[in-house]
Amino acid sequence: MLKNHNNNTKLLLDISNEGRRAFTLPECDVPSQEITDKDNLISNINLPEVSQLDLVRYFTNLSQKNFSIDTNFYPLGSCTMKYNPKVNDQIASLDGFSGIHPYQPQETVQGAIELLYDLQKLLGKVTGLEGVSLSPLAGAQGEYSGLLIARMFHESNGDSKRNIALVPDSAHGTNPASAKMAGLEVVTVKSDEEGNIDIENLKELANEKTAVFMITIPSTLGIFEPNILEITKIIHENGGLVYADGANLNALLGLVKLSDLGVDICHSNLHKTFSTPHGGGGPGSGPVMVNSKLKKFLPYPVAEKNNNDYNLIKPENSIGTINGFYGSFLIAVRAYSYIRSLGKNGIKSISENAIINANYIQSQLKDFYEVFSDRYCMHETVISAKKQKKNGISALDIAKRLLDYGVHAPTMYFPLIVEEALMIEPTESETKETLDNFISIMLKIHDEVTNSPEVVKNAPHNVFHKRLDEALAARNPILKWKK
Ligand SMILES: *Cc1c(COP(=O)(O)O)cnc(C)c1O
Question: pTM score, two decimals?
Fold first, then answer.
């Protein structure tokens, strides 16, 4: 069980003692200045006055009320919340990377531009799509850029009637949203009972108005689309482009190149697969990758090499800039360091281990929980609490009960096409012992569902906060300290 020995809820103000300080400032060695704009001064703000040790304990205790991958198992599917090796953070915090300014002349930051150039090359190799812009700040922005590129491509061919994005019903929610923002009309393609694209439906829908077909690979059900080659062929025969949502490349690295599947454009989330933590709203990085015929439309800046000089350039028919400066530079540094430290074989073993780990869990749970698909899964497996529902226990209850056992809840109720879904992604970093522990917890919960359902129904019991009103917390977050 998760130990919860630190239930210290005292606020700093409660332990405040007038005159106590957590710091000493050095003697002032510059002349003191009168403050002229006194109207904007606030007095009596009643800040806590505490010792340094109390301050350290306060924030350390606060941090431990949170769940984190550094303390516990975090099987969050569809989002690859994996462990990020610390060395990549250390490298990103080197002065030469973290201390440079975006307005510095390019000749003074040649090393930084070289890194961007090399990372573009590496991502081009991983996906087989050699045109890369690191500019997008999130997966969704990568999608948006990719879709604008598709539009520009058709327009430049005098083919501006093409205004439809075909999007499967199993797609990640950002896909139809990005298509709409890029000025395309979204038409939904059905999935069959096995979670594959319904080919007959796709054939009916693909036509001279198809601008792009968007497919999440691996699908949000954690499975590989077996008919992918036929699908991309149908789209190409109808003059459309194929967009792959490669936000989670954890199952494909070193094993499958998206270009070999007939993909023309994709994005990938450096803040999922390539060693930047995510969650809590950022920062992110969602590079967009395209094949050679689409390169000239990429958003700028793109890093280029001329002899021994590195430059940031604007591609010939660029869709423009999609944000300020160069994208999330320090995330690019982490991704570069991650790929280089692993090397070609290391990169491949990430996907192999991620896939084996997910399948191991699937095989051990399938007699107790309904598994969406009996096929081998990729980096994540989708199980359902349908059986447990008969005892009045929902996916939400199980997710909450996991917290009591020191495991973060998996993604729940997604993908939408699976009832009572729990989407589990162990990632490549976990040992077999951790997976076995998780499996035994899931089986214990399964027992509790039959023998003591109330315990599960009222979970969590051992965490600082019990069940929250999650909708209210998201709609009306209170982020400011109030007196
Ligand atoms: C996370 C994710 C996205 C969106 O990425 P953001 O950086 O959150 O915009 C898109 N598609 C898939 C499959 C994802 O998992």
Answer: 0.90
